[in-house]
Design a protein that fits this description.
With 670 residues, the protein is of the alpha+beta class. The chain has 18 helices and 24 strands.
Length: 670
């Protein structure tokens, strides 16, 4: 459909139509904003699409869904006096602008690139007044990532199909993520618990309330209690001991607020506090960024949400500090703005994820937001404001109590000044902090005598490392330099969709196939699943983006050893039998049956195949009667992509289903 233009016009191309109207409103007459709907060119799906012999030249094609969009954009561009490419302010956005320039045949004089990190009037108008050309180094870095991932995925995945089973995939980041989960599971499996005992005493000094002190030392050295015999001997000594306060120490302890959100910390905190998946978090954040009508027309509520920067602009800092002083209290305002720095330079955007205007308090715009938009916006708003508030101050007290050759220790702390904690606490520390803040020791002095009220001894065992949650997996990926802010959510979705892992009680559990694939890749392509290799590759991509490395040379250095390993694996890797033995006997031929995995999940099949083609669904353990039809059983099922859910055994007659595992007596304490 052609677009009429009757006046001198500047065409602005963005990625998403959701923000188009808002941007057009801010730019005013003479501007027309259209969307590219993401990429307009991509590598072909049906083949590798990389000319390895000719400098790793990519073969770009126009996807079917982009053809109509491109036709409209070409028509509009021909009628425009100038084209402004206003795609997202990261490497992928830069690459999309480059693809648009190439697909539309724009000459240097015909286009400019503009960049903004928030969809506000000032930011849009400033960007339009400060155009630049496309940064070819950023494009090269993104193109290198795309080519690299294609070389890995389109060569390893077919190998896995031939050697293990169809439908599997491998990837530079996803395979490392699966390996981390598999390695953690093996740590748990190999873990040998060690017994230890904790001993404490409930004590009471005169005219004070009771307090608890834990055994800390014997003869001035740490005490390790490994069995009941040792514990009983100590308890016997303590029953006869006199208890005297030997040391009281009170000091003020300051605690500083956390930095404003990056993509990674936003995903982690939303997982901990709101129980949102990383994919869900990013989808909601995209809505907040692109613009929502909060009674004054559509406006972007947060800055760009794909970033690893903790920086705040001077304008934002001034606005936040003014808000704290006027709306909270000047007592909560530090003398200087807080500046947070990361060990490495931020690459994806210039600022942290923050509200575009702190005056849009969560409560003031709550009625315009959906419940989940409100919760995420409130999280971002509070974290940002708290990051510029004064330290919290605790009065921390430590008391040593002498009991013969033993020393027992009691600790307590009270909040003297809440500071930033009056607005925000990090999710993983919130409960612990509140519990500790409430514990007050009695007013004790040195040489105070204490009466023993009760001795306590608890047998305990060391625990294995915790399984990864979405939050802890993202944190580990980021700490090890694996992937970029934009890759965490799709990576986690992919490893679930491919059936490598499942989530139960918010924790990742690897499936059997994850162990098989990880071992194959570790044995034959060790550098592909190496954390160090993947992190180093990210550094090289950063070097390309900064113009310090040639992307073709980086590809060549990767490809040559990878191709050698690939050729060896084609010959040396034997086909893996993933069938699992069972006690089931085929009722048709009497041979054993095994569990196989097919396109729609696991099923029972006869080992006499192809002579006997008997196959049937796995027997399902019932979690109770269906709450809808009252006749069928609630059984575990899987989608075509391997995602687990629970539904009625009478499907398709009864279509009741749920993503959440129904509670039973067996699992209600999980």
């Amino acid at each position: 459909m052609s677009i009429p233009f009757n006046i001198a016009m500047i065409l602005v191309i963005v990625e998403s139509p959701a923000k188009g109207k808002t941007i057009e409103k801010y730019l005013g007459e003479g501007y027309k904003v259209l969307a590219s709907f993401g990429h307009v060119r991509d590598l072909p799906k049906s083949k590798l699409g990389i000319d390895i012999e000719n400098g790793f030249e990519p073969e770009y094609v126009i996807p079917i869904k982009a053809k109509k969009v491109l036709t409209n954009l070409r028509t509009a561009a021909k009628s425009a006096d100038k084209v402004l490419l206003a795609t997202d302010p990261d490497r992928e956005g830069e690459a999309i602008s480059w693809h648009l320039r190439e697909a539309l045949g724009l000459k240097e004089k015909d286009y400019d690139r503009i960049e903004f990190h928030e969809i506000t009037k000032d930011a849009i108008q400033f960007a339009a007044g400060h155009p630049r050309k496309i940064n070819e180094d950023l494009v090269d870095a993104q193109q290198a990532r795309r080519v690299l991932d294609r070389l890995v995925g389109y060569n390893l995945s077919p190998l896995l199909w031939r050697k293990i089973r169809k439908g599997l995939s491998a990837g530079r980041v996803q395979s490392v993520a699966v390996k981390l989960i598999v390695d953690r599971e093996r740590e748990i499996q190999d873990f040998k618990p060690v017994e230890y005992w904790e001993i404490s005493a409930d004590l009471k000094a005169s005219d004070s309330h009771e307090f608890n002190a834990r055994l800390a030392k014997k003869d001035g050295k740490s005490v390790e209690i490994g069995n009941k015999k040792t514990a009983d001997a100590i308890l016997s000594d303590l029953e006869k001991a006199n208890y005297v306060v030997s040391k009281v120490e009170t000091k003020d302890v300051k605690r500083s607020p956390a930095a404003p959100f990056t993509t990674s910390t936003l995903q982690q905190e939303a997982a901990r506090k709101l129980r949102y998946s990383s994919k869900r978090t990013m989808a909601i954040a995209q809505q907040l960024y692109e613009g929502i009508d909060v009674g004054e027309g559509s406006a972007g509520l947060i800055t760009y949400m794909r970033t690893d920067s903790t920086n705040l602009s001077s304008q934002a800092l001034n606005e936040i500090r003014k808000y704290i002083e006027q709306k909270i209290s000047s007592d909560f305002l530090p003398a200087k703005p807080r500046v947070y720095r990361k060990a490495k330079a931020a690459q994806e955007a210039h600022e942290a994820v923050r509200p575009t205007s702190v005056s849009h308090t969560p409560e003031s715009i709550k009625s315009y937001l959906s419940p989940e938009q409100f919760k995420l916006y409130e999280l971002i708003w509070k974290r940002t404001v708290a990051s510029q508030m004064a330290d919290a101050i605790y009065a921390q007290t430590s008391v040593d109590v002498a009991a013969g050759v033993y020393t027992l220790r009691a600790s307590g702390r009270t909040i003297k000044f809440k500071g930033f904690m009056s607005v925000y606490l990090e999710g993983e520390e919130e409960t612990q902090t509140e519990e500790m803040a409430e514990f007050r020791l009695p007013n004790l002095k040195e040489n105070d005598k204490c009466d023993l009220q009760k001795l306590n001894s608890d047998q305990k065992f060391t625990e294995p490392p915790a399984r990864y949650t979405e939050a802890s997996l993202i944190k580990t990926l980021e700490e090890n330099g694996i992937g970029r802010p934009s890759t965490y959510a799709p990576t986690i979705s992919t490893i679930q969709d491919r059936g490598y892992v499942r989530i139960e009680q918010r924790k990742f559990y690897p499936e059997d196939i994850a162990f098989i694939v990880t071992d194959l890749l570790r044995d034959h392509f060790p550098f592909v699943v190496s954390v160090d290799f993947t992190a180093n590759m990210e550094k090289e991509l950063d070097e390309i983006a900064e113009g310090h490395m040639d992307w073709v040379l980086v590809m060549k250095e990767f490809w040559e050893p990878f191709k050698q390993d690939l050729d060896k694996a084609q010959t040396n890797v034997e086909k893996v039998n993933t069938d699992r033995e069972t006690d089931e006997i085929c009722e048709k031929c009497g041979k054993p049956m095994v569990i196989k995995t097919g396109r729609y999940g696991e099923f029972l099949a006869c080992t006499g195949f192809p002579e006997c083609k008997n196959a049937k669904p796995l027997p399902q353990k019932s979690l109770g009667k269906c709450p809808d039809c009252k006749e069928g059983d609630i059984v575990e099922r899987k989608t075509k992509r391997g995602k687990k859910f629970w539904g009625c055994s009478r499907y398709p007659e009864c279509k009741w289903a749920t993503w959440d595992k129904p509670k039973t007596k067996e699992n209600e304490e999980e």
